[in-house]
Amino acid sequence: MMAMLDTPVFVVTTQIDGHPSGCLVAFGTQTSVQPPSFMVGLPLDDPIHQVASKSDSLAVHVLPRGRHVLAELFGRHPDHQADPFAHCAWRGGPLGMPILDDAAAWFVGRTLSRSEVADHVAYLLEPVAVWAPEGSEELLYLSDLDDIGPGQEAPPPRLYNGDRAEAARKYGMRFTLDVP
């Protein structure tokens, strides 16, 4: 059953002392609507864990479906020494967090707690700044990364085409917060 679960691709970024760090994560979910909160799991063996453990904030990005290269850049094995920030467009955002220019949407969250869970650390975040476009863009999912190799065509469209019925919006979370 676990292999059947498919989630959007999340890229988490953070920084400490002007040194950005980031990685592709497979575990992320909304945990509360009021107050808003989100939990993301960072791998213990990834360098981002060391940086995030010293930072008070994280930025969580979702990627549009066409950004496989960006996902792969942040999804490299931790032993690979390439700096993904040297190969993508980004800027400093709220609370000094690195924001990826090609993200479909993002939020910056203040870390409320950290809990070690198996080979990950679960970060509970309180969103303090959010950017999401008014229209919806089809997102990149983890299964999209497994299906595409060099020179292959993109997989067929998902059953969900990104159109949202008004009734479905009541379950979504859209909020805007100002950074103090």
Key phrases:
mainly beta, oxidoreductase, 11% helix, seven-stranded antiparallel sheet, disordered C terminus, two-stranded antiparallel sheet, 180 residues, Split_barrel_FMN-bd, NADH-dep_flavin_reductase, Pnp Oxidase, Chain A, Flavin_Rdtase-like_dom, riboflavin reductase (NADPH) activity
Describe the structure.
With 180 residues, this protein is mainly β. The protein has one domain (2-142): Pnp Oxidase, Chain A. 11% of the residues lie in helices and 36% in strands. It has three helices and nine strands, in the order E-E-E-E-H-E-H-E-E-E-E-H. The strands form two sheets. A seven-stranded antiparallel beta sheet has the order 2-1-5-8-9-4-3. The chain is globular and about 35 Å long. It comes from Mycobacterium asiaticum. GO terms for molecular function: FMN binding; riboflavin reductase (NADPH) activity. Keywords: Oxidoreductase. Residues 2-148 form the Flavin reductase like domain. Belongs to the non-flavoprotein flavin reductase family.
Write the layout of secondary structure elements.
Elements: E1 10-16, E2 19-25, E3 27-32, E4 37-43, H1 47-52, E5 57-62, H2 68-74, E6 90-92, E7 98-100, E8 105-117, E9 120-131, H3 142-147
Antiparallel strand pairs: 1-2, 1-5, 3-4, 4-9, 5-8, 6-7, 8-9
InterPro entries: Flavin_Rdtase-like_dom, NADH-dep_flavin_reductase, Split_barrel_FMN-bd
GO molecular function: FMN binding; riboflavin reductase (NADPH) activity
Organism: Mycobacterium asiaticum
